[in-house]
Amino acid sequence: MQRIVQKNIAKLLIACMTFGTVFTFADLPAREADATAAEAQKKVEEIQEQRDDVKQEINSLDTQLVSVLTSIETLEGDIAETEQEIADTEVELEAAQASVEKQYSDMKTRIKYMYERGDENFLEMLLESGSISDFLNRSEYITSVYDYDRELLNAYTATQREIADMKVVLESDKINLEKQKDELSVKKSSLDSLIATKKTELKDFDKQLEAAKAEAARRAAEERERARLAEIKRQQEEARRAAAAAEAARQRQQQQQQGSGSGSGSSGSSGSGSGKGSASNADSVSGGGRNPSGTTGVSGSDVVAYAKQFVGNPYVWGGNSLTDGCDCSGFVVQVYKHFGINLSGSRYSGALQSVGQAVDYECIQPGDIVCYAGHVGIYAGGGVIVEAQSSKAGITCSRAVTCKKILAIRRVI
SS in 3 state form for 300-360? Predict the structure, then answer.
């Protein structure tokens, strides 16, 4: 018997090694999920980079616009000053023109006076002069007056011409300044248009970025869900293979026991007695062949089908409601209560280790109660259990029956 058990343990170890290889391949969907999520995140980063580039361009254009506006403001000040200088020049030009005209009028009057009284003036000057020297002095005085008038007239005329030339220069400067202002105004309009375009692009990138982030989040969620389902499938496959390996080992063990029993009746009695001794130990889950017959007529598949209806409902510690929430032992008690089997006296997982009849792991059937340290569930077949798993997971039917060390398997139907 010990040799058979050792062989079964060796086979189970080989199966677990095989499952390790399965785990490696089962990781592929998760890797693909990571790759897809990374691709979506890369798209987000690319759009973010393009958005930052456009924002930088807008900042540069804003700087240029400020410079242009400053230049326009300076030119407007220069134009205002030039216009004031032109106005002042026009006033000066009018004053100079008036001075020229007055000087010219005065000079013409004196010349006319001297011309009309020509000889008479000279005669008066001669008669009134005390000497020839005095006469010459008076004659030079008349000439100097004439020369003074002429020089003053020439000076006024030159001043008038200079002011007129200055006015022309100022008007030319004003034209140039206005031309520069027009050019800067055109540049300002171009910058305004370009900034508006870039801001539109920025808004478009904002929308693209928001959409890309949403898409990345959606893909990440999808891939996480896909990975979760793949993990559940992997666990189910693991449990199925483990159950299949255990069933095959059990069948081989029964065949060997039957062959040994036909050879020696006394030996078979001894084996039966050994089996009873094993049945009294609830911690033994691999030896013997305890597979008690049903006592209630309730089908294990019906129990499992009923229990699965509540998958997804919440886990509530100490709860007794299959819909509003229950804990692991409350779940088991309420499921069997539906079939008229009262386990309320064993409300806690430790107490459920002694209800009904003991079952060996090799003989486990859907509807059997599986007890762990501080936890309990119902075997659903296919290597998995239906259970109130935890406050985070709720009621599930995805974990392998071997997810923890099994302390006892009990049959109450």
Answer: HHHHHHHHHCCCCCCECCCCEECCCEECHHHHHHHHHHCCCCCCHHHCCCCHHHHCCEECC
Write out the residue range of the structural domain in which residue 98 sits: 1-263
pLDDT band at 33 (very low <50, low <70, confident <90, very high): low
Q: Vertex 171, ends 169 and 172: CA angle to 5°?
A: 65
**Which CATH number goes with the domain that contains 211?**
1.10.287.950
Query: Counting every residue, how long is the chain?
Result: 413
Look-up of token digits 């592929």: 28
CATH number, domain of 394, equals 3.90.1720.10
At residue 335 the predicted structure's pLDDT band, cuts being 50, 70 and 90, is: very high
Which of 230, 263, 296 marks a domain boundary?
Answer: 263
Mean pLDDT over 256-281 rounds to 43
Q: What is the mean pLDDT of residues 96-106?
A: 79
From CA 281, how far away is CA 86, in angstroms rounded?
Answer: 120
**Contact criterion met (CB below 8 Å) for 381 and 236:** no
Per-residue pLDDT tens digits for 361-386: 999 999 999 999 999 999 999 999 99
**Strand-by-strand arrangement of the 384-390 sheet:** 357-358, 408-411, 369-372, 375-381, 384-390, 394-396
- Give the Cα separation of 74 and 35 in Å (integer): 58
Name the one residue in this structure whose structure tokens are 């987000």. 44
What percent of the chain is helix, strand and coil (3-state, nearest 5)?
A: 75, 10, 20
Domain count, the chain: 2
Q: Does 17 have pLDDT greater than 50? A: no
Contacts of 237 (CB under 8 A, 6+ apart): 22
Final residue of a structural domain among 203, 231, 263: 263
What would the pLDDT profile of 233-260 be if each residue is shown by its tens digit? Answer: 888 888 788 878 877 877 887 777 776 5
pTM of whole model > 0.85?
no
| Same domain, residue pair 374 and 258 | no
Same domain, 72 and 214: yes
Residue 227's pLDDT is 83
Distance CA 218, CA 57 (A): 32
395: which strand partners? 388
Sign of CA dihedral 224, 233, 231, 388: positive
